Amino acid sequence: MFGPLGPSLAPTIKANRGLYKIIKPFAGWYADLMGYRRMGLKYDDLLVEERPDVQRALGRLTDKEQYDRTFRFRRASQASILHADLPKSQWLKPEEDTRYLTPHVESVVEEDSERQVWDTLAVERKK
Amino acid sequence: MLHGLRALTSLAPTLPNPPFTMLAARTSAVRSASRVARNFATVVDTAGVKVAAVDNGEATSSVTFLVKAGSRFENKPGVAHALQNFAFKSTSKRSGLATIRAAELYGGILSSALSREHLALTAEFLRGDEEYFVDVLSSFITSAKFTRHELFESVAPVCASESIAAASNPATRAVELAHGLAFRSGLGAPLLATEHGHVDVDTVKSYASSVFGKGNIAVLGTGISQEALTKLVEKSLGSLSTSAAPSASPSSYYGGETRVDAHGGAETVFIGFGTTGTPSTELAVLAAHLNPQPSVKWSESTSPIAGIPIGASVQPVYLPYSDATLFGLLVQAETTEGVKAAGKIAVAALKDASNIKAEDLKKAVAKAKFAAASLVDSRSGIVSVLGSKVLAGASASVTGSISALDKVDASALARATSTLLKAKPTYIAVGDIKTLPYADELGL
Hints:
The complex is a heterodimer.
Chain A: H1 10-15, H2 17-34, H3 52-58, H4 63-81, H5 102-119
Helix pairs in contact in A: 3-5
Chain B: H1 4-11, H2 23-31, H3 33-36, E1 44-46, E2 49-54, E3 60-67, H4 79-85, H5 96-106, E4 109-114, E5 119-126, H6 130-143, H7 148-167, H8 170-183, H9 201-211, E6 217-222, H10 226-237, E7 256-261, E8 267-276, H11 281-290, E9 313-320, E10 324-333, H12 336-352, H13 358-375, H14 379-392, H15 399-406, H16 410-422, E11 426-431
Parallel strand pairs in B: 2-6, 7-11
Antiparallel strand pairs in B: 1-2, 3-5, 3-6, 4-5, 8-10, 8-11, 9-10
Helix pairs in contact in B: 4-9, 6-10, 11-13, 11-16, 13-15
């Protein structure tokens, strides 16, 4: 809940097919409305990265993913300087908005919580 | 790690040499060595996996999964080494952290060792914990994840530091180089990954899937009953796919000379000869004959190499593989003059070995027998000596190889020595290459 990804109702909604069908068009519309795609960014570029676990996840990206991420940031900051969105041809298409970082963050969080469990384990003698 | 240096140290065991008055008692002990040698239970084929176990009532047990996955079979340099260090990382059953922490709670030791022909995954543990540890070993075989981040975060740094450590040891480096020159491909492939080698996860994954198959794995247990181990292996490896043994072209011997600059370590020269075919017992006797290590501390040995200058050392290197043998003398000294003097004596002794006296032969045979028999007393020795026999499905005991040593006579030794010396020598100099002797300067 309080991980780097923040609270989310998405898993609950995705589990319910009917609810998912209703919510999905709104979700797509809302994501477009956020405007990050107009800056050529992906949703995962917006994750708060000033955390040790996300930093570790960033270290697990392939060279290509890391390069592309940096390229998107530079393009977006240039757009920000110009106070303008990118030309429409360079907007990120919804199908390109992939979660390239989230799986890594999730696995890092899982590892950290597993370590926490082992670190605070109470060992009982076998009966 | 089972690489060069380990192999060298195991070649030069300290031999008991009781005072002269006890000689009679000693020879009778040598004679009965074949009887007291530890015998393995017969090898059982469990669902396609060879299992052998011996229980001598030890307080702890050990289980080794021996896989034919040494550097000899790798399709890209360093893959076998990466696979070795991927052992006990995350599998679909448990994460790497869980493996380590649970092993700590059980009080067990997990280790992996790589040789040119085999990858050994070993667990040592208290009696009664075999179910967990066999599961740890078999889950690596059946369901290792080989994640990219583990390769970069923990496997590759370990590989790199192991290669750096090996490269900074002149003896290990000389033996590594000797393998490359002697056998070129196959056995000549470097044991460890190079410092800057690039091994990616997919290569490791495909190598693992090619070697982890039934018929390519043997399970050796000590301190555990054959039935218990068989049952556990059947349960955990029963679903493993049958894969053909990785292809390895038969070894051929080439030989050659190389000189590598190094500083900081001892000046080192390796004079080697190779043979192909199954390792002959005569070379083991020859190694024992030449071994200048005294049997009693601070005494002088009666080996023909005993006259080397103080501060220099000569170690016979006898490395038998399934279809080839590398035999050689590792000459080390603080100064290049010492290497030159010791090297001359060593080469002269090697050439003179065909004129061995009857009593020297007897001594050498006894030494070789002791070395072969005492190797089986240690757990790592059991794996290195009997592992390949278990893999081949042959009866796993050393009695045969020890009694074969008895049959070595002077003419057989002379024949073996002369065929050995006929081949082109493998000559490696590591250290101050400007002043280290060339092969012809030592009389080769």
